[in-house]
Amino acid sequence: MSGPISLEPGGGEPDTLAIRLADTRPRRRPRWALDDTTLAIRLPRHGPDEEAVSELAAELADRIGPAVHPYEVAALLEAEGLSASLINERYGHPNLFSLASALYERVPRTFPEPAPAADPWRPDTLRCLLRGVLFALPGLAYLLTAPLWNAGGHAPALIVAGLVSWAWGQALGHRAHLRMATGRREAGRTLLAGAPAGAAVATAIAALPADGGPVTLVAAAQSAYLAAAGVLLVLGRERLLLAALSPLLTGAAAVPWWEPGPTLRAGLPLLALLATLAVTGWVLRGALAVPAVAGAARPRLLWSLPYGLFGLSAGVLVLLEGREEPYAVIVLTLSMGPAEWLLYRYRGLSVAALRATATPAGFLLRSAGILGLCLLAYLAPLLPAALLTGADPAALLLLAAVLWTALLLQAFGAAWSSAGICLTAAGGAGAVVLLQLPPGAALALPLSCGAAALCLSACALWLLGRPAPHA
Fold first, then answer.
1. Is 261 in contact with 148 (CB distance < 8 Å)?
2. What pLDDT digit, counting tens, does each position of 148-200 carry?
3. Which of 123, 7, 6, 103 is nearest to 49 (CA)?
């Protein structure tokens, strides 16, 4: 006879003499594996079985393609359970590494892209919009109480108190966020000590232009509210602050249809203040109930100083804009919510650009495009708002660009550069207005903000156009 005789109906493998044993157990196994119920006798083979190797390569192509070395294929085959005898008898290779090398050469290299990672900087849209509204809602108190006080005589004291409170709140908020990295109790203790002190300092400074008159009480109420609201915003309790301001919303909604009278005009803002203070005390009590972290180092006070200086300079710039266009201040205040949302989007887009580029030059180009896109998205809605309110579009858009770019630099820790540029712009524009120097108040603010916006944009590209800050 020229070859073995098959003992199975329909024939079997040409080189196998097999006896089938009874076994009805269902079992999944790879196509290349020998049947567990087969007792096989192999005849000597000369050289690899190219057809069998090709079938195995086709079956495992999706896992062999990403391999960068035959040893990875060998590990895969070993994990699949291929024994040395099976490799020798079925595929005709002397060992595991010989078969792995053959498979590695047959399957072309494929390197699939990893699954896209979740955006770590995905913004909370509702929260950002709510914060923008909360920045503007306290203005309803001035709308309600307007008939009760003399704007010309009382405004200087309230403006001074507001500027001091804004600067103090920016510095205190930064320090509280630094302490939040240690623990919520530590942040609560910082806010408990800093917020009342800030309100007291703002009231004391406001008493100077008020000559200690009754307007000092109004400045004290304003400072107390700003301090309490800052605590709630830092601790993420925006909804509680909105609930505390509900008396203002109710009174302002009724004013166009009904005259509330002096009692309600003064009582509703006072009720909102008391509610805000009560909610703030309750939130701080919960924060202080958290166990303290032992051995935590306190951040230096100097680290928060540039944030306070930026708050002061930003307040001066907004004040100068408000002297000419009061409604522009309302537009800017409401835009702080979308501005915060765009800060998150900038960071998310920058992380995506970091993953998509392979060279520093490519990342710099993408970073410039992201900066321009975010600025355009922030400034575009302000243009129709400026035209609608009758404000000068150039001054409003340039001031908004300064504020957003400075906040972007602060978000990445470049606080001194943004504070210095904004202080210079505020000082220059303020000096022109106060001393009535040329080119006049109408052009001083746009020119100062335009120069500041260019400097801040250059700083942002220089600092954030590198991969390191986004890694």
1. no
2. 777 666 788 889 999 999 999 999 999 999 999 888 999 999 999 999 999 99
3. 103
User: What is the tens place of the pLDDT at every residue in 224-234?
Assistant: 999 999 999 99
Structure tokens at 60: 């495992």
Statement: residue 258 has pLDDT above 90: no
pTM of the model: 0.77
107 is written with which tokens? 């399957």
Q: Please check whether residue 460 is in contact with residue 404, taking contact to mean a CB–CB distance below 8 angstroms.
A: no
Instruction: For residues 238-247, give the mean pLDDT.
Output: 94
Q: Can you tell me whether residue 38 is helix, strand or coil?
A: strand
Written as one letter, the residue type at 435 is L
Does the pLDDT at position 248 exceed 50?
yes
Task: List C-alpha distances in Å: 346 to 67, 310, 380.
Answer: 36, 21, 16
Residue type, 213: G
Cα–Cα distances in Å, from 272 out to 135, 406, 461? 15, 32, 43
* Cα dihedral 229, 235, 238, 243 sign: negative
Q: How many CB atoms lie within 10 A of CB 256?
A: 6
Measure Cα distances from 396 to 102, 109, 378, 431, 444 in Å: 69, 56, 12, 19, 13
